[in-house]
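Researcher: Following up on the earlier apo prediction. This time include the ligand. It's pyridoxal-5'-phosphate, with the SMILES given after the sequence.
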Amino acid sequence: MTPTVRGTQLARLLGRWHALPARRRSPDYAALASAVRGLLADGRLPLGVRLPAERELADALAISRTTVSAAYRELRESGHLNSKRGAGSWTALPSGLKVEGSGLWTSSEDLDLIDLSCAALSAPDELMAATKAALNDLPRYLNSTGYHPSGIPEFRAAVAAQFTARGLPTSPEQIMVTNGVLHALDLVLRLLVPVGAPVLVESPTYPNALAALRDRRARISTHGLDENGWDAELLLSTLRQVRPRLAYLIPEFQNPTGHLMPAAFREQLVVAAQRAGTDLVIDESFVDLALDGQEMPPAVASFDRHGRVMTIGGMSKPFWGGLRLGWIRASAPTVQRLAAQRVGVDTSGPVLEQLIGVHLLSQTEQVIAVRRNQLRAQRDELLRIVAEHLPDWRVVPPSGGVTLWAELDGPVSSALARAVEPLGVRLAPGPRFGVDGTLERFLRLPFTQTIPELQDGIARIASARYDLDRTGSRPQWSEPELIA
Ligand SMILES: Cc1ncc(COP(=O)(O)O)c(C=O)c1O
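Model: Understood. Below is the ligand-bound prediction.
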């Protein structure tokens, strides 16, 4: 079923459309069309969504139907709307604007490069000692086969204990250990999402999750985030209408926007998903990285009464991506099904890394305290230098996680990414975080790099931004890049 946006919902998304700059120069209908195009380009209004009937939108915006009619006509002419008599009008992008994220990972060996496409920290100081301690533990496992499809018992118990300590009682049987968080998502998708099944994601979202979904040939629908995060009413209504098989969401310091989903909405979300027959896959990659001392809302899974929430998380963001340690928290029978599923994928994960994980998890507080101080200082400096060098960019300061989501002064994200490469900076432009080539007005900036790297990187980006205006380069993007 094609999802529909209601008149009142679209009116809310459009906000103060009549006060946009286009309004000063153009008639009402053109300003309205331009505002709808803006929502599409920013990924806040998904593609393939049915717009309200002309009369309904006219009522919601308190304008004449003729104005809405003319705006829809203009949108049809510019390729942003497809209409069929009697069936309605649904959103589209003009042909030639589609940009597919390749999802490819190509690691950079260029040491002079300031890589702002990757949002990941280097290893914590505690890693070497934890590795040595794990080597001492390893003989305990050497007389066994070493195959543990759900993970070694000690690591499962350590992960379960962390959930329990957060107020989410969890037994080791509810934990499946994976080779990183993306592997966790892949296993869940293999289990739950048949080819062509509808899956709902945020827009913007984590690009490699989109790659995993495309790989499973899921039918992707999006929920657009704005500067306040999720629009509860719209998301719940999309769940009701689309009835996705699964929704993949990042409620804790969302990648890339940094938003934290409010507690009240979490409960509504679980209830609505249950009614829609949708399984929720909640990616908690950043749950430990609150930066402003705030109390964290309860885990989404704490509202789950029907075993429909699967929580995925791991050690990559708070500890180190090189460990490749992740997990799935689900019901014990689901974990068994996932383990059976894994036999045809990679059978089992390495024992030594899990033993390292046990030692590191026992030092979580101390490792995280250092991470938080470092990330807070880097975030604050990044906010300061962006405001200084690029004053026309708008940023909602994130209260956690590792990235800023900057709203640029024009749809130049890909052009900028291209322009800074010769200056030795690598960026992940906005469209990589969405589907169908939208989000050109946005750029993700990580604050995982050191302060001197951030200062240097932003200075180079600012100079490339001003050059873009002078040379008028056209946006383009062709090379696969590393995004994490
Ligand atoms: C939201 C989110 N999920 C998953 C991952 C991948 O984690 P891993 O490296 O453990 O596969 C990332 C990495 O950036 C991420 O941002």
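Model: Confidence is low (pLDDT under 50) at residues 98-108, 474-480.
Researcher: Noted. I'll compare it with the apo version next.
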